[in-house]
Amino acid sequence: MLNRPTPELLARFAALVGPAAALTDPEATKPYRMEWRDKYLGETPLVLRPGSVAEVSAILALANETRTAIVPQSGNTGLVGGQVPDGSGSEIVLSLDRMTRIRAVDPEGYSLTAEAGAILADVQNAAEAADRLFPLSLGSEGSCRIGGNISTNAGGTAVLAYGNTRDLVLGLEVVLADGRVWEGLGALRKDNTGYDLKQLFIGGEGTLGIVTAAVLKLYPRPKGQAVAFAALADPAAALALFNLARDRAGHDLTGFELMPRIGVDFVLRHIPGSREPVGTTAPWYALVEISSGHSDEAARSAIEDILATAFEDGVVADASIAQSLAERSTFWRMRHGMSEAQKPEGGSIKHDVSVPVASVPAFLDEAIAAIEAFVPGCRPVPFGHLGDGNIHFNISQPVGADKQAFLDRWDEVNALIHGIVARYHGSISAEHGIGRLKRDLLPAAKGPVAMAMMQSIKQALDPNGILNPGKMLRP
Amino acid sequence: MLNRPTPELLARFAALVGPAAALTDPEATKPYRMEWRDKYLGETPLVLRPGSVAEVSAILALANETRTAIVPQSGNTGLVGGQVPDGSGSEIVLSLDRMTRIRAVDPEGYSLTAEAGAILADVQNAAEAADRLFPLSLGSEGSCRIGGNISTNAGGTAVLAYGNTRDLVLGLEVVLADGRVWEGLGALRKDNTGYDLKQLFIGGEGTLGIVTAAVLKLYPRPKGQAVAFAALADPAAALALFNLARDRAGHDLTGFELMPRIGVDFVLRHIPGSREPVGTTAPWYALVEISSGHSDEAARSAIEDILATAFEDGVVADASIAQSLAERSTFWRMRHGMSEAQKPEGGSIKHDVSVPVASVPAFLDEAIAAIEAFVPGCRPVPFGHLGDGNIHFNISQPVGADKQAFLDRWDEVNALIHGIVARYHGSISAEHGIGRLKRDLLPAAKGPVAMAMMQSIKQALDPNGILNPGKMLRP
């Protein structure tokens, strides 16, 4: 049973980090209590901003001893409410935002050691300065922090070639619920000495321990790239193009993103600097990116080769290859603007789902038909990482409809789409995690055996339940 | 506390699989009791060979209820004694060798579902028949089974480009200690719904549950390959060549294996069909393999390009590129023969260690000097996967020395080498696991926090300790 901290206890916590790093004023704590989309606003009596592993350890030791709830937070960019306190006012926020050091860069060993509060873009830049690539890339990379990326096993646009965040972590330093520090900062490519403990904390959403630092994998920087926008009749054609591209380019296929015409329309309407990407208007589009270890020319030749075969096979209706670095950016901006461009179109009910890659076309056909029948006039805008089977199945409200009335149907629309996802053995959270938003959907999605295993692991590593209570699992 | 099964209980276990699948005769059970190198010979009153998940479940439910020890086994090719029963005669062996079905191959989804008893080569062949690659490749691939590969997180020669077995698993079906079946056979590339439970069983050495089936990742088959043998002055030159090759070829660098001259000498002396691989004799050699999504010519051109730069930079003394498929095989056979060729040279004390890739040269210099001082006249034959930092640091006895007297120094030699490994933050088991052989070395290697976490996870998932007791962890 957790306790509400007394003023005396709060003072003890604050003393562990010093007054400058202990925030109590509601205005000062607001950025830590508020989810960035305003979906959640929590209460907290105290935000602690420790500056070292030792301070994190001392905080957790005291919290465990006194049964005080701790909500770990890094960049506060999560999309499922996992990083903000609840409304009770009894949870202390532990922010990693002062622990931002890049401890080491090892270009020869293709690894980098960063503290949990390092901003993703800073990690990318530190790698680039050493002529290496840290491939994790997502919309919020300018403000999200690596500890949160690790704790949510973040996805993004580079998963196809480099994997999820899980695949990019070599070692971790973690403070456990009782304050013990696990020094797991190995940089080894192979290590079969016991259970792979780091896997529990990657995607653990801060419920099993607090990641304070990580050794991350680096890669050679591609020497060249080419990006094409292809016009397609339907998702089946997109899948055929994906398979062709993957077969020809293998690991050099570093991006394959699916977009519907309506999404392109929204972008053209609302995102400055966008332009019609291909001469031919088509119901669907794919952005294809090829990287090369040699040159832009090699990448371009590979993409031309793929598109030529796709034309011959009748898979692609039309396509255009970016002629410059600027045009490559424009193509990617079309894709990255897909989410933002939905906002001016009114209410949007969102899903972050995945199905097996080969099932994407059938899933899309079925889900689009179902939602159009369920909410007449609604405008499905499904887009995303086809190569990972990960579709952001967003639905814009009918034109002229009442926004709130549409959004009020969120849960029943979720139920409809997640029901279809389940029939395709898919996931209701491909890359955003569970947090608070999807916690009560989890038992049905995972089944009782998996839920019991998760509960027993939580019990084993955080027996007092002080770490991020109520997130992912019911307390 | 575990019980020794009574004859009545043994009969109940046998009835779960039927008489034909329950072996009791010591001659019939011997292949299941004996480790293939004769290092361990255990005792067992019963070998159960279930034919279905339901039978595995029934066995574990009864074992858990009656506190009976179960030793899971698949191909019995492990190198650390994890798969054989102890000498007490109270442990039942559960062999997966009848559950060999490839349940599904999905070329479009780049995945394959196999039962735990499927032989690795059969999995590779099933993938190839669908024009896909299952990249896991190791010496025992003709007899090891995929369940064992998963439970030991097997490595092999393709780790550099495709990762360890852990990286090749999309989903698992697992029978838990109490007989419950976890249906985790997802084929998703992205799924952030709760803890990634499969990670516990991958590399779990059968101590947390029994893997009965897996969904495995497939890849496009390379369209072409090129293999070169390069003569090198020292491991530092090998590392420079590796970095150059990786920088130029990226993911197309699919093999990079280091060998010392003495290992090549042993192969030339003892392995039929081997021949001097390069014109110039050198202290060290590297086998370099490049794959291409296009053609043999493209791979060859890439390897020529790399070697040309390496010559210019003075990194490589001489090199030869395989001119035919046959010559490629010969080059690989030189590498694969490295272990076998040590046998006729007398006693060999072995280590399966890893260090950060960039530290391999310094580690080798130090370890070779240390062992030569410690055992005058001994012949170090360190070889292996330089690109993964994984060195099989084997030491052949001095010429003419007494074999047993040399082997009697196994533990003190291990201690010397592992002490150096520890200073490089390396691993004492890079790819073979812990099992029985290295169990008592684990606490010093991992430290008390990691050991406590492992024990608490074991306790959470197998509270009665029936699964593979005494392997990896002390009971």
TrEMBL record, chains A, B:
Residues 40-221 form the FAD-binding PCMH-type domain. GO terms for biological process: respiratory electron transport chain. Keywords: FAD, Flavoprotein. Pfam families: FAD-oxidase_C, FAD_binding_4. Transmembrane segments: none annotated. SUPFAM superfamilies: FAD-binding/transporter-associated domain-like, FAD-linked oxidases, C-terminal domain. InterPro entries: FAD-bd_oxidored_4_C, FAD-bd_PCMH, FAD-bd_PCMH-like_sf, FAD-bd_PCMH_sub1, FAD-bd_PCMH_sub2, FAD-linked_Oxase-like_C, FAD-oxidored/transferase_4, Oxid_FAD_bind_N. Its cofactor is FAD. Coiled coil: none annotated. GO terms for molecular function: catalytic activity; FAD binding. Belongs to the FAD-binding oxidoreductase/transferase type 4 family. This is FAD-binding oxidoreductase. It comes from Kaistia nematophila. The lineage of its organism: Bacteria, Pseudomonadati, Pseudomonadota, Alphaproteobacteria, Hyphomicrobiales.
